[in-house]
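Researcher: I'm preparing a figure for a lab meeting and need a structural model of a single chain. I don't have an experimental structure, so a prediction will have to do for now. The sequence is pasted below. Please return the structure as tokens so I can convert it later.
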Amino acid sequence: MSAISRRARPLPAAAVPDGCLSWDGVQARRWAQALSACWVPVRVPRRVVLGVDLCALVACCLLADSGIRPLLAAFLALQPVWLLVRPEVVRTTAAMQALMVVASPLAPPWRVAACGVLLAGACALAAHLRMESRQRQFRAALAAAGGVTARVPDVPPRRGRFFAVVGIVLFVVGAAAGLLAGVADAADDRQVGAAAGFFLAGLGLTALLSGVLGRRRAAALHREPAPVLRVLVREGSGLDTEVFAADDAEALRPLFTVSLTDVADEDETDDDEDEDDEDSDDEDLDDVLGRVGGDEPGPLREAVLYGAPFDGAEVLIVSAAEQDDEPPVVERSVGPVRPLSDAHVRRGRRAERSRVARDAVYEERSRAAAETVARAPYGVSGKGVRRWRAGGADWVTAALAVLWAGHVFWGETGVWRYGAGGLLGIVGVLMLPNWLAWRVTADRDGLWFNGLRRARHIAWDDIRIVECKGQELKIDSRRASFDEWSVLGFRWPWLERKSGFDHPYERTAAEITAMWREPAYRPLLVAGARERERTLWPLAVLVAVAWTTALFLLP
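Model: Understood. Here is the structure written out token by token.
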């Protein structure tokens, strides 16, 4: 149809159901206008959901520590989480919360009860508006489809398994922790421990419900012919697929995003691959990893959307392949549809402009470092072994992390200090040694990377990428057995541009790249065992001892 942009990769006519209409800009605009008010949380990034979960856990522990019954404390803290991820149940849980804080044996002091009622009312109102907007979006999508339906391609019903398993595990662990908290010596620890356990059990039930609802919606999509629409799609920088109106030739206004998985990839087995397939897989892997780590979206493609999209819906998309001469790609949703409001699109454009300006500085400094190396290439070479190690940027990053951790736990007591502090200490033991003392050694045979327990090695011919991307220096191998090596460090783009300073990561990446590309620049000697195997476990032990001492001895 003429509404489909010629710039998009074309979808074969055989893959388009008979009578399938294009979702044009007018109909798409009506669908977008069906969204609820901007203050209603509809599209929440995963990192925000995780942050809300952590804040809710802290609030749960604080409520229990102040004398609120553990079960009620957990229920109050879970209400905002349910509003974000499972609005279907909020109108029921909000009514339950109002009863619990007013007329149940668990009723707290009147101030907490009043706040609980207000929270329940606000959450119930937001959930009601969100559910109403879903109905409006559903009707708008059906109107755009014009009554045209088609059978969904046969896809195995795998939706919801992961969340179901995770939910059961979290519920069992949380319920056990909540019930066993009574063995603690201090009364405050018993209260806080039980509340944290019940909160974890509530998260488990939430995950289990997400799995069940996702599976039911996926089954409903396959049960009978579904509405179909012609659209444009592209893979976003975060690997979520962006969906556009069929006549949005410039991809200016994404309507919604959805996480998809290729059905063909799920059915493939490693035994069916030959050497040519492995080479193709390497190229695909390079493209995918580059997109995950970068900010460039994939190419725009024609597609057919199966299912009426709305907030939380399950869909299936048949789209043109990103590569020429390949068959259409069938992808099923592994996450719900998440609409994009006008405000979100505007924020995205502002963030894009800011990112482009920041990346321009990084690219300028990267070119400057590469030119410095190119002017004196043999300055990076020599007969001896070359080494690059942690420096000021890494130490500043580590110091900021330690200061933040100390600020969070300074003066705290009980479960929060020793439980959460202990978990954070484990993270510190795993990460701080690498920040403080990472080391890359280049010799005749390739690159050596020190680690906690042993050194890792990449042969020169096996290197896949050497890159300084923003604050991250990363090196990876073409061999699947090698996990990507990376390190994060503090950067100040404005100061680097003004002073002409080459960040150590940029210089390291430029020098290693020169050796990788030109064998004449590589060292002629082989590093000794002591040089390449400077393990980090002694430093990890020191970090563990220091953190444990601080937790138990400092006020």
